[in-house]
Amino acid sequence: MTTTAKQPNLDLVNPELLQADATDIVRWAHRTFGEGLVLSTSFGMQAAVMLHLVTQVVPEIPVVFIDTGFHFLDTYKFADELTARLKLNLKVYQAKVSPAWTLARHGKLWEQGVDGLNQLDKIHKVEPMNRALEELSATATLAGLRRGQTEHRKSLPPVVLQNGRHKVHPILTWSTKDVHDYLTKHDLPYHPLRDQGYASIGDWHSSLPITAEQHEREGRFGGLKQECGLHLPETQEEDDSRFSSGL
């Protein structure tokens, strides 16, 4: 990969990328951001889609996984399976304190409402992700967000400037069927907990199976919130900017 200093004009780029297919969006991101481009993954339910899609274009791209210490055992096994199969350039980051230390200091934050969940996310997800992006000199990240997943994501464009870095969403407009068709076409697995009724996988304390009538995100965070904090603006100014730009 070659480093480039291009700064895309999002007002021009986003309408064009909305008409492009996912692979072309990945190619555009690679041309635009070069060695500053990284891929983030949680090894969640449909993680194999983005991991396969992106590494077919950029095989050596750094793949950032935030190990919260609260993942299901099946998630760690799934991560090992996909890392070996797709030959991922995996970069694992953790919080500066252990889950046990957080528990000792703050108790079960996941049982302390939205404020507790937000504090837990800040310690075990947001801080290590920010550190990962700094250490990897990342200028842009690829993420597998889709508009149908949460209210926040409905308003997302293909590319957004968040926390001083660009975030690119190649499969933003994909439906659940599109995801399933891609996995089937390339003989890729879902997360193993799909067979137990889970539709969205995060930490074990904040993920539950759902019924056929429920939305795929209803099993996350006890219904108290939809986002973990990694995909939201960190300041009011960033939030205001996102909306004033029509993003």
Pairing-aware structural class of the strands and helices?
A: alpha/beta
Q: Into which percentage range does the β-strand content fall? A: 5-15%
- Write down the CATH class: Alpha Beta
Total count of strands = 6
Rg calc: 17 Å
CATH architect. name? 3-Layer(aba) Sandwich
Helix and strand succession? HHEHEHEHHEHEEHH
End-to-end separation in angstroms reads 29 Å
Task: Provide the domain count.
Answer: 1
Task: Give the low-pLDDT segments.
Answer: 1-5, 223-229, 231-247
**Count of alpha and pi helical runs:** 9
Which strand order does the major sheet show? 3-2-1-4-6-5
Describe the main β-sheet briefly: 6 strands, mixed
Q: Helicity level, as a percent range?
A: 25-40%
Instruction: Tell me the name of the CATH homologous superfamily.
Output: HUPs
List its salient traits:
247 residues; alpha/beta; Rossmann fold; 6-stranded mixed sheet; globular; disordered N terminus; disordered C terminus
Task: Give a summary of the structure in a few sentences.
The chain is α/β, with parallel strands linked by helices. It has one domain: HUPs (Rossmann fold, 3-Layer(aba) Sandwich). It contains 9 helices and 6 strands.
Give the SSE layout.
Elements: H1 10-17, H2 22-33, E1 37-41, H3 47-55, E2 62-66, H4 73-86, E3 89-93, H5 99-106, H6 113-135, E4 140-142, H7 151-154, E5 159-162, E6 165-168, H8 176-185, H9 236-244
Parallel strand pairs: 1-2, 1-4, 2-3, 4-6
Antiparallel strand pairs: 5-6
